[in-house]
Amino acid sequence: MRCGSGRYPGTICRTATVVLSILILTCSAGADPAEKHTARHEQTNVILISLQCLRPDHLGVYGYRRATSRNIDAFAAKSAVFDQAIAQANLTPVAQMSVFTSQYPRQHGMVSFEVTPDMVTQKPLPEILKYYGYTTAAAVSSPEFFMRFDSETGTMINPGDVFSRSFDYFGRTARGLGGRSIRKLPTESLQWIKDNKDKKFFLWIASGLLHMPYAASVPLPYRTMFDPPDYIPFWKRIPLEAGKITPDDDPSYEVFSRVYRNVFYWGFSPVYHLTEEDVRYVTARYDAGIYYTDQFIGELMKLLDELKLTERTLVILQSIHGDDLGEQGNYFHYDVTDSVLRDALIMRFPKDEFGGRRFPQQVQGIDVMPTV
Questions:
Q1: Residues 41, 58: Cα–Cα separation, whole Å
Q2: 210 to each of 156, 191, 280, 291, how far by Cα in Å?
Q3: Which domain holds residue 114?
Q4: Are residues 242 and 289 both part of a single domain?
C-alpha cells in the first residue's frame, strides 16, 4: 500500500487491505458504506491500545495454550481479528509512526531514535482527528515515545517529543530512568475516560510493561506465577565480575544483549550455554507480563460498559512489534524476524459490528490509520 504526500487532514489510502475488508462486509449487509459511515460513526470515540513487544502467539485468541489472556480473548470474541498483521519495523517509535501516518518509515521520516519533530512532517492520526473535533489524549508508559538515543554520547535524551505534539493531553506514566517504575501499566487512562466520557475523543494507551526486563513492573504473586519450580536465573549461578550484571531476577537487556545463539558471552568469551529450562524461565516472565496486562484490559472494557461507551467507541488493540524468545537462540527485538514483526491486531467496533470475524489476509501497521 502506498499513500500520497498526505499533508492534508483526511488523506485516505484507498488500497488499505483492512479498509477493503470492512467495506466488503458492509456492502454485503446491503448498505451504502459511505452513508453508513456518516450516519453511524461520525461521533464514534476511538481508543487505540498499543502494547510494546506483544506476540500474538502468546494470546489465547491466537492459539496459545497457557492461560495468559482471558480478558483479551473475551474482547476478541466480539471483535474483528486479523491473523496476519505485520509491523513496519522492529523499533518501537518507527513502527508506531507508521501506524499513525499510514506510511513506511522512509516516507514519514522517523527511521531511528535520532529524530526530532522537524524531521517528521506527515500529519499523524491524532492530529487529523483533532482537526475534526476530537479531544485527543495519550497515556504512555513506553519511554521510547518520549526519549531519544544520541549515538554520539550513548545516552537517552528528550528531543522535544515527536509524539506528544499531536495531543491535547500527553500523560507519561514513567518519569524516571531506573528501577521498576519506568514501565508500568498506564492506569491513569481509566480516570481520563471517566473525566471525558461526554466528549468525542481519541485516546492512545501505549504500554511498555511487556518490554525487557520482563515482568519487572509486575507485582507478586503475578510475577512468578509461571516460573519453573525452584529455578535460579543462570546469570546468578555463574561467576561474573561484580557490579556488571544486575542481581535482579528479571530477564533484562543487559543480560540478553550478551546472548547469541543461546550462548551467554562475557566480552568475546562464551561463558554459558542456555538450557531449555532457562528459555522456559524467560518465557514464563514474559507471559506473566501479558497476564498482568490482560487484567488491565479487563478493567478498561468493564469501565467502557459501565459508562455506556461501548456502543459508540471503536477499540483497537495492536502490538507495536513482538520479541524473540529464544527462536534461533535470539532474544529481544534486534532483527526483523517473524516473531518480532508478527503483530496482534484486534478491532472492536461499536455495537460489536463484525464481532467474531477473522481475516486471514495479510494486513500491516500502515492499514490502521485509513481504517479509522
A1: 32
A2: 20, 22, 16, 10
A3: 44-220+277-371
A4: no
pLDDT value of position 239: 80
Picking from 122, 113, 109, the residue whose alpha carbon sits closest to that of residue 144 is 113
Question: Does residue 10 lie in a domain region?
Answer: no
* Whether residues 48 and 163 fall in one domain: yes
Task: Answer yes or no: is pLDDT of 127 > 90.
Answer: yes
82 shares its domain with 166: yes
Other CB atoms closer than 10 Å to residue 164's CB: what's the count? 17
- The per-residue pLDDT for 24 is 40
Beta bridge partners of 266: 269
Give the Cα separation of 229 and 92 in Å (integer): 33
| CA-angle at 249, arms to 281 and 268, nearest 5° | 85
Residues 283 and 240 in one domain: no
Structural domain total, the chain: 2
* Residue 73 and residue 199 share a domain: yes
Q: Are residues 129 and 248 in the same domain?
A: no
Q: Read off the DSSP letter of residue 143.
A: G
- Min mean pLDDT across 1-5, 34-38, 139-143 is at 1-5
Query: Mean of the per-residue pLDDT values for the chain?
Result: 84
Distance CA 234, CA 236 (A): 5
pLDDT at position 178: 42
Where do the DSSP E strands lie in the chain? 45-52, 80-86, 135-140, 148-150, 155-157, 169-172, 201-207, 259-260, 263-266, 269-273, 313-321, 324-325, 331-332, 342-348, 358-364
**Contact assessment for residue 184 and residue 143, using Cβ atoms and an 8 Å cutoff:** no
Residue 10 has pLDDT above 70, yes or no: no
Helices of type H across 102-140: 105-108, 125-131
| 268 and 283 together in one domain | no
What's the gap between Cα 73 and its chain centre?
A: 16
CB 122 within 8 A of CB 6: yes
Q: Are residues 263 and 303 in the same domain?
A: no
